[in-house]
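User: Hi! I have a protein structure encoded as tokens and I'd like to know what sequence might fold into it. I'm fairly new to this, so please keep things simple.
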């Protein structure tokens, strides 16, 4: 039986993007694990995603991972032994991309997603797979919270209301005294474009709600410190330059200049 049978498009879109960019712009982002899985993914699913996507939307998905990887490496450098807690892991492959033997990667997602992940990716020696609803925080009991922990939420918060996210972060703050959090967010304009794109891929049920117009104000609302606010495309624009289509370059500049898509780095305590 094909390991990808029943895998939702919301899990396949980031994988398809990592394959696309790894093949076309390996000097910017290269995911050997994603490429090794290409032949196993139903080709009609990949073609549907690629056909309904542009160069810009593929890079938009991967820019998130490029920046997260850089921030994870900086966290390793500061702490050595640490936890990397990936909330809403899906088929993310950072544990395979990054050399971090002193870190333990905790991959958290719904039980059915974790079961699919086990079949498709297996688990590295320094990886722990936990099937749980991330909002219940039952997964936290499996983690040594006395160790510095970097919590990563990639492409997840957008699907929930702000009130639920703020309550969740208040609970996380209590559980992780040495914790930091990085997550991606769009502003109010960006969320409208993101919804249009996901619907274009054929997924009409994955409505997005959460957006951040003012990163400092959101951090203050959560009682946390904003340590970094990072735009998506700074590195991509510098490294790829004229290799990109004109529309892609313009869209990246508009997005960065307008703060349409950002990554927030919060100190929990």
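Assistant: Happy to help. Inverse folding works backwards from shape to sequence: for each of the 269 positions I chose a residue that suits the local structure. Here it is:
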């Amino acid at each position: 039986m094909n390991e990808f049978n029943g895998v939702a498009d919301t899990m396949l879109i980031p994988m398809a993007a990592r394959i696309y960019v790894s093949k076309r712009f390996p000097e910017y982002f290269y995911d050997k694990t994603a490429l090794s899985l290409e032949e196993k993914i139903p080709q009609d699913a990949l073609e549907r995603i690629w056909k309904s996507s542009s160069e810009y939307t593929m890079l938009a998905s991967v820019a998130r991972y490029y920046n997260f990887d850089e921030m994870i490496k900086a966290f390793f450098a500061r702490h050595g032994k640490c936890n990397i807690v990936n909330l809403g892991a899906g088929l993310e492959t950072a544990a395979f991309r990054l050399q971090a033997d002193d870190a333990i990667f905790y991959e958290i997602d719904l039980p059915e997603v974790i079961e699919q992940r086990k079949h498709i990716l297996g688990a590295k020696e320094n990886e722990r797979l936990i099937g749980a609803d991330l909002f219940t925080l039952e997964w936290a009991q499996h983690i040594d919270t006395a160790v510095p922990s970097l919590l990563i939420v990639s492409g997840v918060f957008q699907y929930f209301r702000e009130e639920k996210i703020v309550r969740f972060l208040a609970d996380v703050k209590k559980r992780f005294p040495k914790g930091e959090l990085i997550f991606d967010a769009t502003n109010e304009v960006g969320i409208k474009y993101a919804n249009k794109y996901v619907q274009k891929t054929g997924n009409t049920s994955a409505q997005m709600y959460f957006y951040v117009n003012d990163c400092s104000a959101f951090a203050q609302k959560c009682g946390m410190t904003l340590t970094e606010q990072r735009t998506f495309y700074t590195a991509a624009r510098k490294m790829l330059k004229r290799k990109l289509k004109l529309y892609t370059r313009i869209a990246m500049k508009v997005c960065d200049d307008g703060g349409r898509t950002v990554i927030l780095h919060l100190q929990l305590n």
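A useful reference point when you look it over: The first strand starts at residue 82 and ends at 87. Feel free to ask if any position seems puzzling.
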